[in-house]
Specification:
By secondary structure, the protein is α+β, with helices and mostly antiparallel strands. It has one domain (14-137): Aspartate Aminotransferase, domain 1. The chain has helices at residues 14-19, 24-41, 94-100, 120-137, and strands spanning 45-48, 52-55, 58-61, 67-70, 73-77, 82-86, 103-105, 109-112. The chain has a six-stranded antiparallel sheet. The protein has a two-stranded antiparallel sheet with strand order 3-4. Strand 5 and strand 6 form a beta hairpin. The radius of gyration is 15 Å and the shape is globular. It starts with 13 loop residues before the first helix and ends with a helix.
Length: 140
């Protein structure tokens, strides 16, 4: 069994990936989120594995004790939901989550239906907080 992480940068085209997202509404949401995260991070998007668009990188020690890399922030336009990877999680963001509108959360995953159904300013503030916290925790 390999100890290499399965999800890592691939060099694949982010534009081609987003262009292939179906349905069209999810593709449009992916374009909007990609633009927002690029603006917040100041980083170019890159593909991580076959379905995650990530911005920036940070190194951490995995559960196996080995160093690994992961995007500082990212998203995946999945069929069921748009998933945003806000790595520090959602501590101290309850007010923004309440403003956001329909969503679900995992440890560091924010699951959204359509962008039109959520408060864009709340989403942007959450992404900005995530990026700033990751920069604080993992300085370049």
């Amino acid at each position: 069994m390999s100890s290499e992480p399965k999800t890592r940068p691939t060099g694949a085209s982010v534009e081609a990936f987003i262009e292939a997202v179906e349905p069209r509404g999810r593709r449009e949401d992916a374009r909007a989120i990609c633009a927002m995260l690029a603006e917040i991070s100041g980083e170019a998007p890159e593909m991580w594995g076959p379905g995650i668009v990530g911005f920036g990188r940070y190194r951490y020690t995995g559960s196996n004790g080995k160093p690994a890399e992961w995007p500082r922030i990212g998203f995946s336009p999945r069929k069921a939901n748009m998933v945003l990877y806000l790595m520090p999680g959602f501590q101290e963001q309850e007010a923004l989550l309440q403003r956001l509108g329909p969503h679900k959360t995992g440890v560091s995953c924010l699951y959204l239906g359509r962008l039109a159904d959520v408060d864009g300013q709340a989403l942007r503030q959450m992404a900005e907080r995530s990026w700033a916290e990751m920069a604080r925790r993992y300085p370049a």
